[in-house]
Amino acid sequence: MKRIIFAMLIGLIGISACKTVDYDWENYKYTAVPIVTLDTAKSALATRQAAKVSFFNLKSADVGSQQFGFSLNWEGFGLVTVSSIEVYASYNKAEASVPGYPIVINYPGNQYPNIYQFPIPSVVKSTEKLYDTATTFPKTYSFTANELATLTGANLSTVEVNDYFLFKFILNLSDGRRIITFFNNVCDESRGEPGDCRVGVRFKNQ
What we know:
CATH superfamily: Immunoglobulins
Number of strands: 9
Order of helices and strands: HEEEEEEHEEE
Radius of gyration: 22 Å
Number of helices: 2
CATH topology: Immunoglobulin-like
Protein name: Lipoprotein
Mean pLDDT: 91
Organism: Arcticibacter svalbardensis MN12-7
Number of domains: 1
């Protein structure tokens, strides 16, 4: 038995000695993630907190005064801290394939939507407008459809079903790092990951 254990140890030492490539992932660092709490009471149509999507209803005459709101915070898991979060806003036309409504909640444990609610990847583009740089948390945001249209340059008279306003976030960490994007899974509302890299409000006609 001792000979077998000795041989295994020698083998492991030999394997480690043969390592010739250093991979980027071996030098990982911890980061923080943005946390969004959606104001579900302000949605014109029923929604779920886990979906991170609110709705404006085009069938209503007062669509311009309908509201959208959320609270922004962060989580550093006791390892890193955030000095500020940049908040970017945009208006977007409906994508070719959109998630259905009502929202289907089925995974896991009837908590999360069956599909992500906005297109992935969720990267801040040069066309998206820097709306705010938050330095105190949690911070609450509230808008009407008219206010979002003014903010993003959209025309509510030409909005169509499934068009949407979207907010994305860039984190500035206290150690000087700037986290400009996250792996797709973190931005996928259907996975229940411990972070929310975007939140938005979509137009429906219900």
